[in-house]
Amino acid sequence: MNKSVVKLVGSAALALSLVACANRPGERTAGQVFDDSAILAKTKSALVKDPDIHGTSIDVDVNRGQVTLTGVVRSEAERKKVLETVWGVKGVQGVQTDLKVQPPNP
User: Fold this and answer.
1) List of residues 6+ apart from 21 with CB closer than 8 A
2) pLDDT recorded at residue 104
3) pLDDT value at position 1?
4) Is there a domain that residue 36 lies in?
5) Which domain holds residue 39?
6) pLDDT, tens digit, for every residue of 57-96?
7) What is the mean pLDDT of the chain?
8) 19 occurs within a structural domain
9) Does residue 77 sit within a domain?
């Protein structure tokens, strides 16, 4: 095969793969998935690193920059600190919370 045929076949294969990867309406693009993964990692890291937050009892989900928090915090002050921390993560577009305040057992 000569070089022009190889380039043509390669271009056709690339075009077909791009069409096959086209998103359905409502699905996230590859870039959005990548961005959400980065936001998720940064958010979890920030929560775990903060000594005022018991971050291991908080679940984090991210979809198109919208962060959803579920789980348990020890106080209203901790819940506020969690929200402040999450809003400080670059790329966060919004925060929904379903955090329950449950003081630790004595």
Assistant:
1) 30
2) 83
3) 53
4) yes
5) 28-101
6) 899 999 999 999 999 999 999 999 999 999 999 999 999 9
7) 81
8) no
9) yes
Edge-to-edge, what's the strand order for the sheet holding 58-63? 58-63, 66-73, 94-101
3-state secondary structure 18-71: HHHCCCCCCCCCHHHHHHHHHHHHHHHHHHHHCCCCCHHHEEEEEECCEEEEEE
Number of domains in the chain: 1
Q: How many residues does the chain have?
A: 106
CATH code for the domain of 95? 3.30.1340.30
CB 99 within 8 A of CB 67: no
Give phi and psi for 73, each to the nearest 5.
-120, 160
Q: What are phi and psi of 101, to 5 degrees?
A: -85, 120
Distance CA 64, CA 50 (A): 25
pTM: 0.70
